[in-house]
Amino acid sequence: LPFLNGERVPALPDATGSFQGLTASNLTRANLCRAAMEGTSWGLRYGLDLLRRNGLQSRTIRLVGGGSKSPLWRQMVADIMATPVVCTEQSEAAALGAAIQAAWCLGAGSLTLSELCQRCVRLDPAGETWPVADNVRAYEHFYQRYRLQVAALTEKMVCIWYAEKPYSIFLPGRLRVRRRARWTSRPVLAAHPSTW
Q: Each residue of 150-193: pLDDT tens digit?
């Protein structure tokens, strides 16, 4: 769980990071690095699953930032998301997006925002990465384990936040929290009050 500074999706601002399943035989730098990359990618998948549950379907994923330069990470994201990944020519999308927005705000020859994006944003066909079916199946198993660990962490966080309240609180996701942390029903996906 790569929650070194809490986590935004799922909403766990006080969460901490952890490695699960370490043994003397698998504790290597390469495995720790890969676990960090996989954990980050599963967090992205969690967010994508929320969008999918609300009716938004993805045909491709636009991967940007420094990590998009890594073929290993592009393949990992494609496999975990079960969706093709396409990179942009300009990997630092935040700076490009700010420049596009500034040009649009200044008028930029009366171009629309969509026209500016079409003019400035180019996809990099060399960075296109397709999911590998065997990898997708393998990652799905581990993603479900990630979800269970996040659910357990969510239960613990809700228990900590509300155990001292002298009354019952009903939260989204069918979780009921009572005084002294007696529980019923299932864990929530979004437990922090800011996500209600």
A: 887 766 655 554 444 433 334 444 444 443 444 434 333 334 44
More confident: 117 or 160: 117
Give the pairing type, strands 85-88 and 61-63.
parallel
Cβ atoms of 60 and 84 closer than 8 Å: yes
The pTM score is: 0.71
Dump strand ranges (E) for 84-168: 85-88, 123-129
Distance CA 164, CA 8 (A): 25
Measured CA to CA, the distance from residue 81 to residue 58 in angstroms comes to: 10
Cβ-proximal residues to 85 (8 Å cutoff; 6+ apart), any chain: 60, 61, 63, 74, 77, 78, 127, 128, 129
Q: Which residues contact 156 (CB under 8 A, 6 or more apart)?
A: none
Q: Which residues contact 145 (CB under 8 A, 6 or more apart)?
A: 20
